[in-house]
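Per your request, structure below.
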């Protein structure tokens, strides 16, 4: 069902019926409950911390060979964005994921999917920053973290930066 059709259906309901629909959704699904709890008591720092921990847990999967799933990391970021906690929080969550992926790659083996996914996540970060007027500060953060020679694997960071360069010329 489209958002427009949903609005049309909801506009046909009485106030009491809408309250009942929302209450049932709240009881039926954890995702709805989490969303309404944030909607009623917005605490962006607490929400950020919850998603930060989930991303770090995902990145930390596996001992010698990483079992992190880039699809799960992107899903967590997308879910975080759905709460509309603020663009800077969304940017910071993406940077957190990229930084930790870069740092961990130094110690464990990454699949090609995870390597390419990290580069795509960096491209997504730049697009997100562009849409939210955060490009200058975001590019400085990328340069600081990926350019830091004391952290991460030099060739992996170079791959990410080359991916950014190739896509910025398009």
């Amino acid at each position: 069902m489209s958002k427009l059709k949903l609005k049309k259906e909801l506009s046909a309901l009485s106030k009491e019926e809408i309250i009942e629909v929302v209450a049932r959704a709240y009881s039926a699904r954890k995702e709805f409950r989490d969303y309404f709890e944030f909607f009623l008591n917005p605490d962006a720092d607490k929400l950020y911390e919850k998603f930060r921990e989930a991303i770090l847990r995902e990145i930390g999967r596996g001992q010698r060979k990483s079992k992190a799933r880039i699809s799960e990391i992107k899903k967590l970021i997308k879910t975080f964005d759905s709460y509309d906690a603020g663009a800077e929080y969304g940017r910071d969550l993406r940077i957190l994921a990229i930084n930790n992926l870069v740092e961990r790659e130094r110690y464990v083996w990454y699949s090609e999917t995870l390597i390419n996914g990290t580069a795509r996540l960096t491209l997504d970060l730049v697009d997100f920053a562009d849409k939210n007027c955060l490009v200058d500060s975001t590019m400085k953060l990328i340069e600081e973290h990926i350019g830091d020679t004391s952290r991460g694997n030099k060739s992996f960071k170079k791959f990410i930066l080359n991916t950014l360069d190739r896509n910025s010329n398009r």
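The two ends are 36 Å apart (CA to CA).

Regards,
D.
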